[in-house]
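Appendix B, Record 12. Input sequence as logged:
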Amino acid sequence: MNETMNTVNYYEIGTPDPEAARAFYGEVFGWSFGPAGPAGYSMVNDTGGGLWDTSGIGSGTWAVFYVEVADIETSIASALSHGAGTVLPLVDNGVILFAHLTDPAGNRFGLWQRKTDA
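Logged structural output:
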């Protein structure tokens, strides 16, 4: 198994006020933010994480960690069978596959899988 599998290696902040988040995290931690793409998503510290403007998708707020997995469908099924809930169903953005789930206590987390060239 690849050593990056089943490890937390990405984070994301969702907010309907990305300018306030940029100001807060930039000032507190010195983070840098790339330009927002068409979906309102910008990278944090090049590739360390992301900042998502959620005003176009219901204005949710979250700070979530992502676990990279080898088989996202199997990992989602396993999590659900152990009491997880679905917040954001499986998404294929063309580059990766990802989903947001909650653990049985209600804590939000993400799963992601790199897409391979077919």
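The mean pLDDT is 92.
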